Amino acid sequence: MNIIKNLFGNTEKNKTCNDEINIRDIRNNFLYTNDNKVMCYIKIHPLNLYLLSNKERVSIIKQLSAELSSETKPMKFFSIARPVEVSTVLDDLRELQNNANNQIQKVLIRLQINEILRLTLTGDRVERQNYLIIWQDMNDYAEKDLLKRAMDLTNKFSVCNIKAEILEEHQIIQLCSSFTNMNYAYKEDSDYDDYLPMIRLEGEL
């Protein structure tokens, strides 16, 4: 075997990480794949249905269904657990700690800061983040057409009072890191009842 390799060269191609995960490049609002497709990602901010009445829930469901009824092209929806963004909360607590005149108050704020950091580092403080993926084959107008479709989708969610945003380059990279970087990935438990959306008939809410 070694003689054959020496005569004809090593025909085995060493695969890179990008070959395995099918990512060729990430630029602006798009991810480009090795199989000649361009993808765009939309983040859908959560809506707390527990704060709404049954009538309000039915109204949102009907309105969103009507808005999305014109969508004929394929899309994918997925939801993942990510650590809660606590940097703003920590900055506010540190400012309160610096301005506190009472020593006991400073101690209590410091304990709260340490507890938030502990929960963040152990992965106990997570939130569900929801995304839509839209894509099409690469051509001269792919980016323009895909961005227009993404903007139309965000507007449809906005009509239903659901905030949605098109991911920028750094946000797409961070999202990919959730699957490929063990420092970002979060291991979920096996109880999916609270995570999977349930489809129900009208009147079953």
CATH topology of the largest domain: Alpha-Beta Plaits
Overall strand count? 6
Residues in helix, %:
40-55%
Query: Distance N terminus to C terminus?
Result: 67 Å
Number of domains: 2
Number of helices: 7
Mean pLDDT: 80
CATH architecture of the largest domain: 2-Layer Sandwich
Strand content: 15-25%
CATH level-1 class of the largest domain: Alpha Beta
Largest sheet: 6 strands, antiparallel
Shape: extended
SSE string: HHEEEHEHHEHEH
Radius of gyration: 23 Å
Poorly predicted ranges: 1-8
The structural class is alpha+beta
What does this structure look like?
The structure is a single chain. The protein is of the alpha+beta class and 205 residues long. The chain has two domains: 16-83 and 130-187, Alpha-Beta Plaits (2-Layer Sandwich), CATH 3.30.70; 85-124. It contains seven helices and six strands, in the order ααβββαβααβαβα. Strands 1, 2, 3, 4, 5 and 6 form a six-stranded antiparallel sheet that branches. A hairpin with a 4-residue loop joins strand 2 and strand 3. The longest helix is centred in the middle third of the chain and has 20 residues, at 103-122. The chain starts with a helix and ends in a 25-residue tail after the last helix. Residues 1-8 have low confidence and may be disordered.
